[in-house]
Design goal:
Layout: H1 2-7, E1 25-28, E2 33-36, E3 42-48, E4 52-59, E5 70-76, H2 83-99, E6 104-113, E7 116-127, E8 130-141, E9 144-153, H3 158-171, E10 173-174, H4 188-195, E11 203-215, E12 220-231, E13 237-243, E14 249-254, E15 261-265, E16 268-277, E17 282-292, E18 302-305, E19 308-311, E20 335-344, E21 348-351, E22 354-361, E23 364-374, E24 381-384, E25 387-391, E26 397-402, H5 410-431, E27 438-444, E28 450-452, E29 455-459, H6 481-488, E30 497-499, H7 504-524, H8 526-541, H9 561-579, H10 581-594, E31 598-600, H11 602-609, H12 611-621
Parallel strand pairs: 11-20, 26-27, 27-29, 30-31
Antiparallel strand pairs: 1-2, 2-10, 3-4, 4-5, 5-9, 6-7, 7-8, 8-9, 11-12, 12-17, 13-16, 14-17, 15-16, 18-19, 19-24, 20-23, 21-24, 22-23, 25-26, 28-29
Length: 622
């Protein structure tokens, strides 16, 4: 609810059911905050909410649609305010949305106000056809957030208004005072049913240990996932939420000693513990669920058949929602992921990470894959009666896994292995070397090649639309080198680093796609690079107008590969030309190395590329 209140402030109208306060100073003793009005003919209009207090101050006779007003927002958080994160959220979710294509960021500075840390953001644009400048201060005092918003309509006398606003800023007082406590929690299921909003959880997953058992006769995958849930909050908690991918059906949740109480609302289940878990303490739970063949489930994410299966969706249970209370994608803590497979003895499992054990006993094959600590816990995998053809001739070890009906010649396997090694070497030079030295390619019923950390699913002939790149020598389609390079690059973009928030789809899809262009330029000359860039730009300009949206607004869940592989690549190339190839490569290496095994945001990428590249990218992104 806090995030919703903040997001609505850009288009705020006068608070309802309030009386204008004609006083020289507005003071709130509960929050310990006071500020003067800019001029004697201005009035305050305070409004209250469940967790947020908003005060608008404006000329007594002027309508708010003239955009000549200021606002004070006061709200509290459960813990210390993450000031930079809040300021970035305000820009991305409030101002870009309200000002639309007219939005322009003028400045963003860190400073102190009343001896407290603050961030000043200055923007310009138009709301309701009224051009205006906006100056906003975000100030933190422990768990109290103070936002002071000052609006300057461009058609008004700017100097006089500015002098009044300077008086407001000079007169702002923030004292130590008791902070109002948040409203008591309500029943989880009733709250979700009534509002559709899932509250954030204080728990974070420290590790996942999963057991996957596949029944080929029933075409059913059964999952048992043990996770260590750490209470990262500042108060004891006796329950937690679990989010499951909609393709999965929850069976039960257990602790070490008993079955736990479960209440479900949509894809979220609320789990009650026998006792409270203290802050920074952990509770171990086991979650049991299953998946069956269902034509309603998107094929590219999940395919279960009697002859094998693959899963690429977010199938591990999550202890945090996808977004935080402000509606922003949540960056969760890194977690170690270990996946064990219980399969028929003639079957194999191929997953992300590293194969640590493979044994056959009592007619079953038990296989273990370990991915280490990753910021975005996921583990794509394929299982079936595979056989492996392995090449170890320098560089990463490349294994091609084929089903009984698949056939590739030795020359085809050599060609695939050489393509993977060339792409791996190029990515290592541009984004930094990785410790992993294995790449697995698996023939699957995917419509197009799909890459993950150290894993690429290759399309079989007939699993998608016919392609001129079909291999004449066998059933898997052999993608061209550009596609191989793109999918190998996902071991870095999405595997070594993860992205959330505005621009995340551009980061995770367009940069791997750019690798194909850059690698062609190195191996075939700049003429090849220019040709591929022209093709990307041409594909972008032939998109329907409705599909040509700003890249920073494309979400991962609704990402358009065509847009991101055309306009997204064109944007990257424009930035490269603006700052030069050497500086561009240095910046990418900086991003990839500094954020390895962690989260990266659009602001991190733009900061690394520098102001010249950011200025070129802005029309593409926003």
């Amino acid at each position: 609810m806090l995030g919703i209140a903040l997001a609505l402030m850009a288009g705020l109208s006068a608070p309802q059911d309030t009386v204008a306060l004609d006083a020289p100073v507005y003071a709130n003793e509960a929050y310990g905050v006071s500020l003067p009005r800019p001029f004697p003919d201005w009035v305050f209009e305070p409004g209250t909410g469940a967790q947020t207090l908003t005060v608008i101050f404006h000329p007594r006779a002027a309508p708010l649609r003239d955009q000549l007003w200021g606002a004070l927002i006061l709200t509290t958080f459960p813990g210390a305010v993450d000031l930079r994160r809040i300021a970035d959220q305000r820009v991305e979710t409030t101002w870009r949305r309200s000002l639309g294509r007219t939005y322009e960021l003028i400045a963003s500075d860190s400073l102190t106000v009343e001896g407290l840390p603050a961030i000043r953001t200055e923007m310009s644009g138009a709301i309701g056809h009224v051009a205006l400048d906006v100056e906003e201060y975000a100030i933190a005092r422990d768990s109290l957030l103070i936002i002071l918003q000052l609006r300057y309509p461009r058609g008004s006398p700017h100097d006089s208004v500015a002098e009044g606003y300077r008086r407001v800023l000079r007169g702002l007082r923030i004292r130590v005072a008791p902070v109002p406590q948040p409203a008591p929690a309500v029943d989880f299921v009733d709250s979700v049913a009534a509002t559709g909003v899932v509250p954030p959880s204080p728990f974070e997953a420290d590790a996942y240990e999963a057991l996957v058992r596949y029944d080929a006769l029933l075409v059913r995958a059964e999952f048992a996932v043990r996770t260590t849930a750490v209470n990262a909050g500042d108060a004891p908690a006796d329950s937690l939420a679990i989010w499951l991918w909609p393709a999965l059906t929850l069976d039960s949740v257990r602790s070490a000693t008993s079955r736990l109480r479960v209440r479900t609302a949509g894809s979220v289940s609320w789990i009650g513990f026998p006792g409270a878990v203290q802050p920074q303490e952990a509770a171990a739970i086991s979650v049991f669920y299953h998946a069956t063949a269902d034509p309603r489930i998107p094929g590219p994410l999940l395919d279960l058949t009697p002859a094998g299966a693959y899963v690429t969706g977010d199938w591990l249970p999550r202890l945090q929602p996808e977004t935080d209370s402000a509606g922003q994608p949540l960056q969760t803590a890194a977690a170690a992921v270990t996946v064990r497979f219980d399969l028929p003895q003639d079957w194999h499992a191929v997953a992300e990470g590293r194969l640590t054990s493979d044994a056959v006993a009592s007619g079953r094959r038990l296989t273990t894959w370990h991915s280490g600590r990753v910021p975005s816990p996921r583990s794509a995998f394929a299982i079936g009666p595979f056989r492996a053809m392995t090449r170890r001739d320098g560089g990463p070890t490349v294994s091609v896994w084929l089903g009984p009906a698949d056939s590739l010649s030795s020359a085809d396997v050599d060609h695939l292995a050489d393509s993977v090694r060339l792409a791996w070497e190029f990515c290592g030079e541009v984004f930094g070397r990785l410790a992993s030295v294995e790449m697995n390619l698996v023939a699957a019923n995917v419509p197009d090649a799909a890459g993950f950390t150290g894993l690429i699913l290759l399309p079989r002939r007939g699993s998608g639309a016919p392609s001129s790149t079909d291999s004449a020598g066998g059933s898997p389609r052999i993608p061209p080198f550009g596609v191989i390079a793109r999918e190998v690059a996902r071991t870095w973009w999405g595997g070594s680093l993860a992205a959330r928030g505005p621009g995340s789809a551009w980061i995770l899809e367009s940069f791997p796609s750019w690798v194909a262009v850059a690698a062609a330029g190195v191996m075939q000359g700049d003429t090849a690079r220019q040709r591929l860039v022209r093709e990307a730009e041409a594909a972008w300009h032939t998109l329907p107008p409705a599909d040509d949206v700003p890249l920073a607004r494309v979400s991962e869940s609704a990402a358009s590969p065509r847009l991101l592989r055309s306009k997204g690549v064109a944007a990257i190339e424009a930035a490269r030309r603006a700052i030069g190839d050497a500086r561009f490569r240095e910046s990418l290496m900086l991003v990839a190395v500094e954020h390895r095994d962690a989260w990266v945001a659009l602001s991190d990428v733009l900061a690394a590329l520098g102001p010249d590249a950011a200025a070129v990218l802005r029309p593409y992104l926003y």
